[in-house]
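Methods — Computational structure assignment.
A single polypeptide chain was analysed. Its primary sequence is given first, followed by the predicted tertiary structure written as structure tokens.
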Amino acid sequence: MKLLIIGGTKFLGRHLIDSALARGHETTVFNRGRLISAPIAGVENIHGDRHRDLDKLSGRTWDAVIDTCGYLPQSLELSARALADSVGTYIFVSSISAYASFGQAGFDETAPSAVLAEDQRERFASFDPASGINAGALGDAYGPLKAECERTAESIMPGRVLNVRPGLIVGPFDPTDRFTYWVTRVADGGEVLAPGKPGRFVQLIDARDLSDWIVSAAEEHLTGIFNATGRPDELTMEQMLQGIKRTTGSDAEFTWVDEQFLTAWDVAPWSDLPLYLTESDTDSHGFLRVNVDRALSTGLAFRPFDKTVRDTLEWRRTDPSEMRAGIDRTRETELLKKWHEQER
């Protein structure tokens, strides 16, 4: 099979390349070459901007394209139109955030998609995607824009689009450090501030498992919408932290701090303490409890959790950059001190 990957050198794309090559597929990567400019072994490398240089792909054919970096409908319109006669299936890596609501746990692919509010539509309608964009710059429009990207691709290539909606993607090369924060913090040991209720469910997927499934889906010519994250109601926050402790051989001790205290001290859910969502935010109760039966029925599988933990820690210890998520140790210590003072 011949695969074209748009993006491919930051996080998920790296693993997609590995998955494709491991399965013997002829793989072409199209990106700007800003992260990895040197040729990737075993891969055809075409450097170009997806908004200006799609003509570099003309006259070629692929069985499928995997688009890992589409954030705006303008971007999808350009690439889908340029590739409509060149690829069999357009695989768009969207997001769980594309749903309209997360108030109920267990929702599946039949749930309504988000729609851009009028101010969001106006804000991004004239935005030049070639000027540079990333997920963080989109704010609350991130999910609705992903949904609009899906609809755009489907309108241009009806019946030939696979929209993959991942949850929290974790593992080596994760540029967000959300799960990585917990791996490194627990591995360091000592007293660890653990947020909210220990039994609250979390949901995540190793990028390598997601990549393997996406390449398999390309082989099977799957189309439509698929949620792609971990099994719901299987992993609690406490089980996750204890699993990291066990895998890393840490002496960590967890102090569970309640929502009221964290809110009072302006600890931001998700960013300050990743995977923590407040119970009082009823609109987010289903965000980490998404139904993935459809993907499971087509072969989505998961490696052991301890394997993800070990590989994530091994990678992060080679990365000299500062942690990009979570609270720093000084603030954690201060919060734990205040919590213990309150308990007296």
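Note: Residues 142-156 form the longest helix (15 residues).
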